[in-house]
Amino acid sequence: MDDAGVPGLLERREAHGETSLIVARDQLVEAATHLRDVEGFRFLADVAATDYLGWGEAGTAGYWGSTTGRDANSPGSWGLARLPETKPKRFSVSYHLLRLERGAPRLRLQVWCDDGERVPSVVGVWPTADWHEREAWDLMGISFEGHPNLERILLEDDWEGHPLRKDYPIGGEPVRFSEHD
Amino acid sequence: MAAVMQHAPIYEGTRIPSPAPTLLEVPEALGESEDILTVNFGPNHPSTHGVLRLVVELHGERVVGLRAVIGYLHTGFEKTIEQKTYWKAITYPARIDYLSFQANELVFVLAIEKLLEIDVPPKAQWMRTCLLELNRLHSHLVWLGTTGLELGAISMFWYTFRERDAILDLFEMLAGVRMHTRYFQAGGLADDIPPGFAEECRRFADRMPAAVDEYEAMLDRNQIFLERTKGIGLLSADDAIALGQSGPMLRASGADWDLRRDDPYLVYDQLDFNVPVYPGGDVYDRYRVHMDEMRESVRIIHQCLDGMPEGPWIADDRKVVLPPRDELHTSMESLIHHFKLVTEGYRVPEGEVYVAIESPRGEMGCYLVSDGGAKPWRVKFRAPSFVALQAGPTMIQGSLIADMIAIAASLDTVMGEVDR
After folding, report:
1. Does some domain include residue B129?
2. pLDDT of B169-206, one tens digit each?
3. B382–A63: do the CB atoms touch at under 8 Å?
4. Whole-prediction pTM value?
5. Is A159 an interface residue toward B (CB < 8 Å)?
6. Is residue B63 part of a domain?
7. Closest approach of chain A CAs to the CA of B76, in angstroms?
8. In A, residues 1-40, which contact B (CB 8 Å cutoff)?
9. Assembly ipTM
10. Which of A51, A94, A128 is the closest to B390 by Cβ?
């Protein structure tokens, strides 16, 4: 694929046989439209948001051990062989694109944002993004600019917080309809 | 598009509602009249396949407004998996979709294997393929039975559950449990194939085509079934692609697309099977795709049993795979490996991957991010049911409320998977 024409392209990565294109957040819709119309990625399979808070620090969810336990990060101990690569911002939003032809060429379109920064909605490019973006808002708290109906989808409308964030307390969710509610 | 069949269009233009593609709003002209009746369909209704609530606005018997409320079965699987080691997390994806449990299990295992870059022995590959097709049959049988039930063909349910039970017996023979088998794991299978499985499986596969004929005989000349399914719930190929539809939904709209053939995984590139495609885009064509797929699955099962190679059923990688049980009594190294793997788990190299397979419901995807530790940093499942439900308003708009039941049934959604 020729990625020279992708608007706002910051970086192209190849890993595990997959291609990722990281684009500037404010040019996401232009890049998405280009990939759909020029490169033929008509099928948006998935939108996945990831929180990298605490990435590479001891005691966060991905590590073995607890905050008071071993230092999971010192190489050569029980911890990792090396520290993971640092990430540009706290959240990534990955759009998994597919071209409907033999071999199923796939592409990951990725944007990065910090807490409170808004990502342009791609519902106008791929209508299927509607619920995927609502889910990312509901569970990860990523706000999509220009989404026609950005409401919570899986949790209740009055839920507080976004559970898939790494700083969401585990086991600390409020008990509904209890006397303390 | 090369992959989309050329045929007469189902209808001109698009039916995706605007401005929100998943929301059907009452037209302004109707909104002022007092004839609009708002009906709550669900969350507990026998035909919702779980807990789905549809807020339906009716003008007479016509659906003019529709809003789906989901999340009643939200269990936070993705958050839970982040707290478990990979070894333990494999049990979770199966429980997301309780009809195609092995497909969900496989997609997660494939994602782990892609990061680990581990080689899986051929016997495990062939067995996985065989089980995936058995699982497809299982899922389609439940779909057929419940869809018949919703359209008044009550006896279908008893016939399909007869064969479904035989499939569950096979799973029980393998894993000791009938559902959520956890028979796949990174590197291969959890255990060797038990003696006698091939014979039992072949006996089942031999009688399955006759059973499919029986189902068809019951439905294909049933005038009520035909009138309630033909020309109902139209979805064009372009709309289906724009709405991200996959699997039988997409193939019943005339798009010739199947990941098993177009992006082969496991041993699908060595098997001979057809991909059924129908151009009608209605409930009846979705039924026909399901029926044809059952026949193709039986063919694949036969080929898998014929081609099943001898040899190890799991990779020989002691850093990932449990050592053989008998070694634990004689080898200190094996005992240590066993202990470390069970308590601490194995480490998966840093990276992010997206793996997709053709589950009974369509493209089942798994996005896995690892930081190099023993627990996944982030797992996101691309649930085909979740996406299928998004197409509801496009198909249901303007239809009768009774047809809404038939259309919702044809989506083949499993609410556990929608809500995850």
Report:
1. yes
2. 999 999 888 888 889 989 899 888 999 999 999 999 99
3. no
4. 0.91
5. no
6. no
7. 8
8. 15-16, 18, 20, 40
9. 0.89
10. A128
Residue B4 lies in a domain: no
Residue (of B19, B5, B78, B322) closest to A46 by Cα position:
B78
Helix, strand or coil, per DSSP, at residue B260: helix
Best of A16, A19, A71 to mutate (most B CBs within 10 Å, chain B)? A16
Instruction: Establish if B358 belongs to a structural domain.
Output: yes
| B78–A164 C-beta distance less than 8 A | yes
With bands split at pLDDT 50, 70 and 90, how would you rate the model's confidence at B303?
very high
- pLDDT tens for residues B352-372? 999 999 999 999 999 999 888
Structural domains of chain B, count: 1
Q: How far is A180 from chain B (nearest CA, A)?
A: 22
Residues in chain B: 420
- DSSP, residue by residue, chain A: ---TT-TTEEEEEEETTEEEEEE-GGGHHHHHHHHHHTS---EEEEEEEEE-TTTTSTTSTTSSS-TTS--TTSTTTTS-SSPPPP-SSSEEEEEEEE--STT--EEEEEEEE-TT--EE--TTT-TTHHHHHHHHHHHH---EET-TT---SSS-TT--S-TTSTTSPTT-PPPTTSTT-
Q: Do A149 and B4 touch (CB under 8 A)?
A: no
Q: Is A137 on the interface with B (CB under 8 A)?
A: no
User: Chain A residues with CB inside 8 Å of B255's CB?
Assistant: 100
Pick the range with the lowest mean pLDDT from A70-84, B53-67, B121-135, B280-294: A70-84
Residue B376 to residue A62, Cβ atoms within 8 A = yes
Question: Do A80 and B378 count as a contact with CB atoms less than 8 A apart?
Answer: no
Residue span of the structural domain in which B365 resides: 77-419
- CATH number, domain of B100, equals 1.10.645.10
Taking chain B, what is the end-to-end CA distance rounded to the nearest angstrom? 33
